[in-house]
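C-alpha cells for EVE domain-containing protein. Go.
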Amino acid sequence: MARWLFKTEPSNYSWDMMVKDRNIRWTDIGNNWALKFLRQCEPGDNAFFYHTGNDRCIMGIVEVTSMPYPHYEAGCDCGVDKEEKYAVVDVKIKEKINSPVTLKEIKADSFFEDFHLPKYGRLSVMPVSKEIWEKLIEMGEGTTSV
C-alpha cells in the first residue's frame, strides 16, 4: 500500500463536504508531476486530505478505491481540456485526524526536510513515506473513524 497527500482548496471542496459525501471522484489535477503521482495510485492506498488556502493543514485520511482513469470516462467536467492525459481516481472517507496538522508545524520540524509538502508548495498530489505518515499521525494525536 502506498501513501499520498491530496490537496484541496476548502472553498472548492472541504473535509466537511467529504464527511457528508463519503465517496467522491478526485479531480482537477492538471500539473504533470502531480498527474504522474496520481497515476501511481491503486485501490487500497491511503491519502491525507489536505486543506490549502488559509487553513494549510491535514484534516483526515481517504482511501483510493479505483485505479486512475481518464477524466472524460467519468463523464465529468473537471475544469481542464478533455484530453486523455488528465486522470482521476475515486476515493472514500476513512478517518479524521484528531488534531489537524498544520503546514507551520511541519515546516518547523527538521524531520520533514525531505518531504515534498514544504518543498513544493504548488504540488497537489505527492507521495508520503511510511515514516513521515506515522510521524504526521502522531502529531495529529491519532485518528478516529468517521
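The beta strands are 3-8, 23-26, 46-51, 57-64, 69-70, 87-102, 125-127, 143-145.
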